[in-house]
Design goal:
The protein has 12 helices and 17 strands. By secondary structure, it is an alpha/beta fold. Helix 5 packs across helix 6 and helix 8 runs parallel beside helix 9. The protein is elongated, with a radius of gyration of 22 Å. The protein starts with 6 loop residues before the first helix and ends with a helix. The site of ligand LLP has 22 residues, from strand 10, helix 10 and helix 11.
């Protein structure tokens, strides 16, 4: 089964471009709000890093989600899209002074602090403004996630977060500082996680840490478990909306929250991946020695995930209903890794056909570059071109 696309409208647009199915995005957001809403005090933030297209951000903002930012640029994009600063959490191992100052000026909800030197700088910069910064500590829970090595973050060997052994020490430091208020703990174990057991392992770890804190009569107000829920890249049409019910139920079942605690999530990929496709036109079909190539006008500069993570994205020829044939789908860039898929079965393909590279709404447009002096791809909502 192929996705449905308004290809009669695509001819007027310059390819390659990102196409976002606004209805699917809205339905996904509705599902998130309904499923999270079943539990008292579950609060979902959208991880802007997955896709910061202003039109996409606008729809997400309408849904009432908060945001998770990892740079000053993302804070600016979120504020511009109308998200209230009171719903912004800000993580990142290398926050610079201007970025911290920006967060302080907007009085964002919380800085997710990743080291002692960072805590000291936040305290100093807040003092200079006579403000008090709310901080949560990002604890590295040393929980492995069964996903690609480049996108696991919760192992002790990763650069992220503060080790569990240092947790009590940083809390003590923060409690003595006058310009920070310690409000929570933050975690994130990785991305594209489909095994709920990984989230259960995180819950168990948080339960242990909470017990340690409880022994010191500390109950933090906020627990933030990050993001990471994966999507079905192989079957974008079968399950366009990820299993949010199962995801939130896992946390509800396994995490022992105290009654006064709010549980925060930072979901990126699962919110936006399936609504987006990279639409590209076939420039040439070339017969190789043992194979045929569909050479398209999109390249790794437009969607880098296959080249960078050997990621699979389903590719469909949305212009053809001819019998299936096998192609390597490649871009025009001077790198042998500029390949979207090898030995892909597609309807017989000719020059000028439109291909849809599916599940590209997350970490697609936002990771595009101008390598080879190419133009950045544009992004269109379905409702804009209908
Ligand atoms: N919170 C933190 C602290 C994160 O580092 C991330 C993602 C998220 C939330 C959102 O995670 P998600 O729900 O999207 O899994 N470029 C890679 C993914 C990198 C993810 C980085 N951190 C890719 O294309 O697969």
């Amino acid at each position: 089964m192929k996705g449905t696309f308004p290809i009669e409208k695509f001819g007027a647009l310059q390819t390659p471009f990102y196409y976002y199915d606004a209805t699917l995005l809205r339905n996904t957001l509705k599902t998130i709000q309904e499923e999270a809403g079943k539990y008292n005090k579950f609060c979902v933030h959208y991880a802007v890093k997955a896709n910061a297209n202003p039109k996409v951000l606008g729809i997400i903002r309408e849904s009432g989600l908060g945001v998770d930012c990892v740079s000053g640029g993302e804070i600016k994009a979120a504020v511009k899209a109308g998200f209230p600063a009171s719903k912004i959490v800000y993580a990142g191992v290398g926050k610079t002074d201007w970025e911290i100052n920006l967060g302080l000026d907007y009085d964002i909800f919380c800085f997710n602090v990743e080291s002692i030197p960072e805590l000291e700088v936040i305290n100093e910069l807040a003092a200079a403004k006579n403000k008090i910064a709310r901080v949560a500590f990002r604890i590295n829970p040393d929980v492995g996630a069964h996903t690609h090595a480049n996108i696991t973050t919760g192992l002790a060997e990763n650069k992220f977060g503060i080790s569990m052994a240092d947790m009590n020490r940083v809390i003590d430091l923060a409690l003595e500082m006058k310009h920070v208020k310690f409000v929570g703990l933050h975690f994130h174990i990785g991305s594209q996680i489909l095994d709920m057991g990984d989230f259960v392992a995180l819950c168990n770890r948080i339960n242990e840490l909470q017990e340690q804190l409880y022994a010191r009569q500390i109950i933090v107000e906020h627990i933030n478990v990050g993001g990471g829920l994966g999507i079905d890249y192989a079957h974008p049409n079968r399950q366009p909306i990820p299993d949010f019910a199962g995801y939130f139920a896992t946390y509800h079942k396994h995490l022992r929250l105290r009654p006064q605690q709010t549980l925060h999530f930072e979901l990126g990929r699962s919110v936006v991946a399936q609504c987006g496709s990279l639409i590209t036109r076939v420039t040439y079909v070339k017969q190789g020695t043992n194979k045929q190539f569909a050479i398209v006008d999109a390249g790794m500069s437009d969607l880098i995930r296959p080249a960078l993570y050997q990621a699979y994205h389903k590719i469909e020829n949305v212009s053809s209903e001819e019998p299936m044939e096998t192609y390597d789908v490649v871009g025009p860039i001077c790198e042998s890794s500029d390949v979207f898929g090898k030995a892909i079965d597609m309807n017989r393909t000719k020059r000028g056909d439109f291909l849809a590279i599916r599940s590209a709404g997350a970490y697609g447009e936002i990771m595009a570059s101008v390598y080879n002096c190419r133009e950045l791809p544009k992004g269109f909502l379905s409702e804009e071109i209908l």
